[in-house]
Amino acid sequence: MDRDHLAYLGAKERQRQIQQEAAELDAFILAYEGRVTQNSRRGRPAKAANSALPSGAPTTRKRKPMSAAQRKAVGKRMRKYWAQRRATQAKKR
User: Fold this and answer.
1) How many other C-beta atoms lie within 10 A of the C-beta of residue 58?
2) Are 37 and 27 in contact (CB under 8 A)?
3) pLDDT digits (tens, 9 = 90+) for 18-70
């Protein structure tokens, strides 16, 4: 074996050691903060672990349908809103 190959093997071993130390430090920090150390994940828990709803409960929020009069009122409000917005944009130019 030549010297370059031995240096390469030594560097790979040192990299493995550093990765092991990093994993141990991560586990220590998690334990210090009071989190679970085995298979702990950051972020929101998985859906299966988070399901506190009964099996028959709906998962999405249902909306009450709008009547024709309500849709017409919304359309009128939005036309007024966009007309006002276009007017302010025209003043800025």
Assistant:
1) 7
2) yes
3) 999 999 998 888 888 876 545 556 677 777 654 555 666 666 788 899 999 99
